[in-house]
Structures
1.
Amino acid sequence: MGIFSVLEERATPGPADDFWYEPISRYQDDDVTPGTALGQTPVWAAVNVIAGTLGSLPLLLYKEIPNGGKERDRDNPLYTMLRWQPNSYQTAVEFIEMGQGHLCLRGNFFARLETNQLGDLIGMVPLHPDKVKLELVNGGTVEYHYDEAPGKVRVFSSEEILHVKGLSSDGLIGYSPITVGAGAIALAASAEKYGSRFFHNSATPSGILTHPGKLRPEARSNIKKSWRSAHGSEKQHSVALLEEGLSWTALSVSPDEAQFLETRKYQAEEIARLYNVPPHLLMLLDRSTFSNVTEQNRSFATNCIRPWAIRWEQAIRKSILERFTPDGTFVEFELDDLLRPDTMARAQANQILLQNGALSINEWRTKENLNPIEDEAGDQHWMPMNVAPVSDAGSVTPVDDTAEDLREQLKFNQIEVRSDAPLSELRSLANRVKIAEATKPLFDDTAQRLVKREVKAVQRMIKKQIQPAVWDEKSAIRGTDQLSNDLKDFYFGEFTDAYVQMMGPVIRTYAQQIYTQAALEIGYPTDFTRELEDFIETYIAMAANKYSKRSRIQLQQIISVTPFNEVLNALDVRLEKWLDKRSMEVARAQTTQTNGAISKYAYMVGGIISLRWVTRGTDTCPYCKKLSGKVVSTKQNFVEGGTPVEADEKKLTPNNNIGHPPLHGGCDCFISASS
């Protein structure tokens, strides 16, 4: 037998033998961890394609609208956080991609929900799943124990954590796909290790050297070393010079030695099945065709990405939306692009929707990433057969109301107008009343959310500084002083910003509508100029400061004049009153205030030199009735601050100058151009 007899050496393998004789099964399941598994290219490819695909899909915040539809809630601060930047150092793509990677490797994703003093969500900070442990405490409440640093464990409540989990047997923690597929991954790793060493040695022992005589062990060893020195590794294809009767017999790779290639491909397919990823996405293309790849892509979107997307959506709704947003708010991944069919099929489907009034031209163009057309016809929905706007079905073209009709509308709404008021003034007043009444519920709803957040934040500050168990006069002075400082920082910092953020969009939209009607009244262009936008933004900032100042003064007055042992109860009473009534008061005041301020601005830029007070509700308000029809210059006030308005032997003395309505709390009056 030759000195390199493969069969001979295989029969008696030793610890120093060549890699040829190392069994693949030496790689154990226990060696498989998320870290080691990610070193396997099929696992990396599967995790990367799932996480990358989901991360690239827009995560959008919607709100339900009265007609049963939905619209993007761009005014909600959470929209920007979820769509673009969930924290200070990650984009939304990076956040979701990383989170989905944790899910694919460990079955769970955790993120800490950061809030400010108002209780607003300001960020989502991911936590490594390996450092998080769940504990079920009293009443089934879940606590999250996070190993923040060696020897330091931080405990979070379920309200502070976003937890997205995969398939679970107990409803608390998700299965790790790596643990479930450890066997398949271990075999793939072993095959890779085997193959690396196999091909490092040219995938074959090359051949056999034989000698005509019998060699002593020392001679066998010397020949072996000499041969490897001359022709081993990188020198294996050099010319061989044979001496002393040596002969060379070349060997080809056996089917058994090459079988591991099929093993590797099979394990890659196993990993694809583990993650529900089509083989072609892992570059297994031997059975792929154009038609079946299209179907496989659709299956990947439906059976892999969509279930993960729904898990994210529902986890976000449970942990975030139910806590930080009003009812009717929800999130959705934009899956249309992923699920969209080929170009021709998509065009045919959209054509059917267009012809049957389900889509407008601009909605179709938006779906195809095209800019909308400027013509108003682009937003129309069309009926089949006669191709007429849906809005025209069974109706006639509306005509303008007559002066008599408008006066009846204004009378019904308790608006007192002069007998010689022109048609433009009547129409402007009637439209402004409609806009105000339509907007008032929106102001009320927004103010309710604002007041709730305000009260919760103030309650937290009170709880922090006022502790009845140790409450004596000395601690009362110290606690109330600190509370006063906290309230000052709060109202002229975070809360003012919150007011602008929440009320600003409503005020802005309402102001633009009011401006349009006031401008039409005097024949002035209705274009939204930069000067108008600046005026509105300044007005919103002033409204925020006014609200904050009023709130702080009310609370500070209670702190200053109430006995220390009664201050807590007095503050609670005031906050409860705010929750009960304040939103409606804010809605009514802001509706009237904005109407008056924006109308006056329109009149002034339009060249009007005098204004008229138009009273609403003369039967119930004697003070406003006193001002009804009063005309002043645009540079004058209807009432100077500190000057009483006398009516029915009573006086109302406003503290501030009244240049436009409201005169008092609850006032619904208007102004118009006097000429």
2.
Amino acid sequence: MKTKITALIALFLLSISATAQIDRSVQPKPGPAPAITLEVPGEFELKNGLKVLVVENHKLPRVSFSLVIDNQPAVEGNIAGVSGILGSMMGNGTTSISKDEFNEEIDFLGARLSFGSSNAYGSSLTKYSERILELMADAAMNPLLTEEEFQKEKEKAIEGLKSNAKSVDAVASRVGSALSYGKKHPYGEFVTEETLNNITLDNVRAHFLKNYNPNNAYLVVVGDVDFRTIEKQVKKYFKKWDKGIDVTKNIPEVYNNVNATEINFVDMPNAVQSNISVTSNVKLKMGDPDYHAVLIANKILGGGFGSYLNMNLREEHGYTYGARSSVGTDRYGASRFNASTAVRNAVTDSAVVESLKEIKRIKTEKVSAEDLKNAKAKYVGDFVLALERPQTIANYALNIKLNDLPKDFYKTYLTKINAVSIEDVQRVANTYFSDKNARVIVVGKGSEVVTNLEKTGIPIKYFDPFATEVSKPVFSKPVPAGVTAQTVLDAYLNAVGGKTTLENVTTLVQEMSASFQGQNMAMTLKQQSPNLIATDVSILGMGSVFKQAFNGETGYMAQMGNKQPMPAEAVEKAKAKKGLFEEINLLNDASKKLSVSGIEPVDGADAYVIVIEDKDGETSKNYYDVTSGLKIKSVSTTKGPSGKDVTQERTYGDYKEVNGIKFPHITSVPMGGQNVELKVSAIKVNEPLTAADFE
């Protein structure tokens, strides 16, 4: 032991001595790019055209299977969405195994098996791998495509569209693709409720027969396998997969870039921030001579935290949490340059100007040697790290085949990255990054951002959420004479049943449900006059996950069993409420300042906007339909735990009468990039509640 300790001390002293001799003021010179030795996967091909790549790796007793069907992109037209429905139906049983039996066996084996419209993926322990391969083959060749499952998936797809109808990100993505490529291009067309309703089960089956075949398919096998064994297994399970008819599809040309930079604006009155995308079409393939230089140029412009765009918009100006850019590659010559960010409404115009400034900067000013070195180092590091994963070898081999790349593409990758010069960066930036003929697609709240966008001097065209050009929207109309906050609130109270009827309500219980990220939630809301309230949220299979209660004097919040007292500020606000209906509280609370700011459109209907300002300076807005008087939207802004403003929006619809009072039965809340719909299943008015309900 003493000898070991002595040796360690000696080694430590030697390291100190060596360190002392290094001149830290001189930056070390980069060494040569590491030599890349890539394993060549084993290959074979079945008579039906299925090509198989095998990468053996025996470090862990696991195997993965990736099936890729290399179909040309195609326009689906009036049945757009048929491939998506097919993908959701695949992998849910076969003609010989029921859906339940299929899924139960996979779960029992601790395996994974998933399908898309042109791909599949499976993984398992080595000892179960042959069975997973067999199930994959069966599901690929003999999917269980029933009318019952078709209707379920079709309804899910329609619900997904409705859920994303008010998603700024979803609208921005759809409009950006449609305007760039054209609605009749495979990359530009989009799914609508109408096209989904056009789809029949026969359409799905026909799509499967035409497109899901081995003609241009690749099966990639990675893991603890023996080449000869896997060759026998693949032939055994996939040899009956009949070869289909090769179909050459006519891919239309993409739209040309605009002659001069313009703003394409989509008004989303519900938007609490703006989605900005500076985009232009490019033709770039992985095999092009410029490819590696474009990677480096994009990394410097917007490909990482220290990029031009991010350092400007996030670090210098604080407009956003992040700004990024990307340049796509496409073997069919249809891809885009895109610089994007999301910012608060107040700085939308400034973010547009600064984004264009940074794009111009990399085109007109040479990048620094430091920025170039850092960008190269990042790519070198990521590339070398990726090589440690066996899946990488397979992916690279597949990429070479799919993109018709030279066989030494990845062997020379680092050499070509390191060969990129400052001049190369500027040259490709001028070729592929556009600030003079770009579409600046902005999706946001027009009433708050358009006036300032007009001041940029960039021409503005207006589009609806489905990329159809429209006239400039009317964002706000003047309030007619005689309309006040009092008259609007009185109209609302009359519309829902009358002030007297509402004042006679002493208890209220609402039962609601919602679906979020595949989880089914249930919520019960109990209220008792004047201000008692209790909320209980549960998730199917998990039980109660959130509770909040206020008994008139004290309250608490409990999340996943973690119970905490309600903050003093929240207690005071809860005590201030005197009644179960907000509008009655507003009329009776002299501490709140109410005003009608204008008339704004909400989902196609004109609404009076009442601005509510409390004594602490916090503001909120309620929107009341001009025709019906009903409340159809509310927006509140409060200070979050970090001190930043947190905005919450709700829209209300499907009003139904219960005990002489109209209640909204659907409340939509933006959450996690999508809209979550709270659907009321039951409302109980003036049913007895006890103190225990609020403890």
3.
Amino acid sequence: MKLRTIILSLATLLLAAPLQAKDRTITKSPKQISVLYLGGTSDWNNGEMGTEKKFQNAKDYETSVQARTKAFGDLLRKHFGRVTVMAAKDYKPAMSNRYDVTIFDGCPPRLTERKYIRDKEGKITGAIPATYLPADYHAASITIAEMGEYISQPLGIKNDWYCLCLDANAHSMNLQHPIFKGPFKTKITLHKEPTPEDAFHYTYFFDHPLPDSVMMWTVQKEGYKNDKYFRIGMVSRPWGYEEGGESENISSGVCAKTINAVALGRHGNFFTWGFSASPLYMTDEAKIVFCNVVAYMANHKQAPVARKYNEHIATDDYIKEKIYLCRKSSYDQRRQEDSIFYDNIRKGYEVAMAKQQRGDSLNAEDKMYMEYYNPNQKLRTYGEYLKFYEGKLYDIFGEDETEYIRYYKKYGSYLYGGEGFYELSLDQDAWAWKIPVGDIRLLDRAVSELERGGDMDRAHRVLTRYTLCEWKTPQEWRQWLNQYRSRIFFSKSGGWFYLISGDPNLPGNDYSVVQKRKDAKAKAEAAQAQQATQNAATNQAEATQEANGESSVQDLSPTNPVNLLAEAKKQGKQVNISITFDFYPGYHVYAKVGADDPYIPVSIDVEMPQGAKLNDVALPKGKPFGGKDTEIYDSKTTIVKTLICNTIPQEIKVKVGYQTCDDKSCLPPVERTFNLKVK
């Protein structure tokens, strides 16, 4: 049950097919293939981001890392001619030039650090991730589990972090794909299992009902669902994954997301093996398929053309979600969930009040209900719900769900989503010409307008919005369009650009143009010099604030969905440490995670001063999530920990870990450290 969204002209398909077929041909025998394996991870979680610890000391953990590394080395040496095994921390990108395939099972040294993007007022509006590989990296590579996010996604590879929630079984496999055929032969044993429960939360993405059961293939003998310590796998977003004929969604797997989330997939020279297990815990069949992936990738050294630099870019599929969200039935379901949560809070409060009136002592949970119960708590109205999800359209359509549906169905082909956080807006230029976005006729019309001196402004807007070209004359635009017409494809996941298949270096494929345009726009702003000074001052102020033990509080937005405020205040012989979470609407962190869920709960670790002890304090109760034991915080919440000290310290070090999610996807886990000055 895979969603195949391929936006191509017939001419592009005809061209891409023979290239793809040629590309898939294995030109070397396995014994001629050289492999570089980069290790550094374990088969087990060990306290990362709030997970329970498998090992009690660093030596035992390192032993597990070495065992995993050896298992991969043994498997690879058995099947391939030249295999080098080393720690990822010792890797340099140039090393990959000496091998047919590089396998990333650990993070190499960073080439650049994470950087924050700020607006004119100095507020954080986004972030540029750390990079581990140079922009021109083109070696055939395989990333295991979350390494896809860390290693390849900063390069614009589609193997992003949709969810760290992949378990042990694959489903919806394309069993005709070469990795299931050879060069090493294996039997793929299938068994029918119920469709993963979480997949039914996303049925609105599909034009057909999901089946009650699917055929599954067991990839690994262990998984986080049967062992809470076992490492969790990663799936990538499926929307627009297969655009352009240079990427393949080969298999999904049991996870907490859509039934077509990518567990096994290739984008250009990168293959994501989303499952987490080493050969120690792989099935015999999976070991063979993994080796087939290595052989398959030995012939895929071509870097992709389309680059997905924005993980949260909107595609056609998001229109389906917008149609779903605007419906009254969607609101009613959400309201019911909220109502159950608030009712549970009320019942807990009533129990606590009864105990207090009887003179009974209150436990930590009772006190929590007493503190957090709000008799004036109101459920969000349908109008408030629509205003949040539909934005400006609410001012036009109000609570008329039929108007929203009509809008998306009428204008869906003319919507533009090239920027922002799952943003879609009507392209007035495409609508004026009645040419759908992505139709090559849009380019033809724009170039024709330039040639005849017609609607020049509209033509320039269209060409700037949808291409990476910087031609100066109508003649240059026409020559480019005519020369590459048969190879042009449109990529929404790649930024909503018309691109040229085949070679990333062809004119029209240069993503550096995006930054050049941003720089040019910045230079055109009169206060640029002054702005630089203001930004510097803001950065210094935030650095000082952080040093004093408080987070730099920014305006909440989809790019900054969580604010943290950390403080430490003395009271007699104790220090109250408070961590306050504040949220952009629609986002949450996990207060508690049930045994069957893969999410990462909030963790607060205090570095204990000598002679101090930490009082046991119940965490604020969260809102039930998913109908299981999992609970979330999605509104302003303060967690207080009390430290009993003989001598009050001047400073206390606190580490806060959490994972932020919305209804569509989860962001990578975050860990923040505060050196709190005791006030």
